[in-house]
From TrEMBL:
Leader peptide range in chain numbering: 1-19
Name of the protein in question: Class F sortase
Bias (Low complexity): 32-49
UniProt KW Signal keyword: yes
A Pfam family: Sortase
């Protein structure tokens, strides 16, 4: 099983609020116990043979028109998780201390909902995803890790479910994270978190192409 190091999980607990959706540095931590993780839908997910380790270079989510390059994110100087830069050509970012997509464990990809004066971010429609929607992570070695959404949750940043997002699982899973909820002074109150497991064969009935 692929696992986060103790240091990486401790850092995640400090930084998962992703307050950087509006360009500000992450802040605070959540001490609230997370609720139980939603059970995957048998129709949406299936057993999957783990892929070889290869970093993600692209992410495609047909149901919300996302087709983006993926950056590699590490830790900021203050020990928090980096977020993608605020630019006009917004891109998602993979947290390099999480497993690569297709390896056992929760692979974590972050993106902005807005990018300041540049307008909408790459994950602006993330909250619209529904159970069964497909997600494809293109890997550097030319393979593709395919997932299906199992649940979408909007949570207050102060109650971020650290263990649900970063805790060990025994199969390949994916977490997509952005900001959401009410906005005040350039900051969002909540996080939107998409949970996904290995995709079963076939096409999602919710995929409706580019917007």
């Amino acid at each position: 099983m692929s696992r986060f190091s103790g240091r990486a999980l401790a850092v995640a607990a400090l930084a998962v609020s992703l307050a950087g959706c509006g360009g500000s540095p992450p802040e605070g931590r959540a001490d609230t116990a997370p609720p139980a993780r939603s059970s995957p839908s048998p129709a949406a997910t299936a057993p999957a043979r783990p892929l070889e380790r290869s970093v993600p270079v692209g992410l495609r989510i047909p149901a919300i028109g996302v087709d983006t390059p993926v950056l590699r994110l590490g830790l900021a100087p203050d020990g928090t998780v980096e977020v993608p830069p605020v630019t006009a050509h917004d891109r998602a970012g993979w947290y390099e201390h999480s497993p690569t997509p297709g390896r056992p464990g929760p692979s974590v990809i972050l993106g902005h909902v807005t990018v300041g004066s540049h307008g909408d971010g790459v994950f602006r429609h993330l909250a619209e995803l529904r159970r069964g929607d497909r997600i494809e992570a293109r890997l550097e070695n030319g393979t593709t890790a395919r997932f299906a959404v199992t649940s979408v949750r909007t949570v207050a940043k102060a109650e971020f479910p650290t263990e649900d997002v970063y805790g060990d699982v025994d199969r390949p899973e994916l977490r997509l994270i952005t900001c959401g909820g009410p906005r005040s002074g350039g900051e969002y109150r909540d996080n939107v978190i998409v949970f996904a497991g290995p995709a079963a064969p076939g096409r999602s009935p919710h995929d409706h192409g580019e917007r």
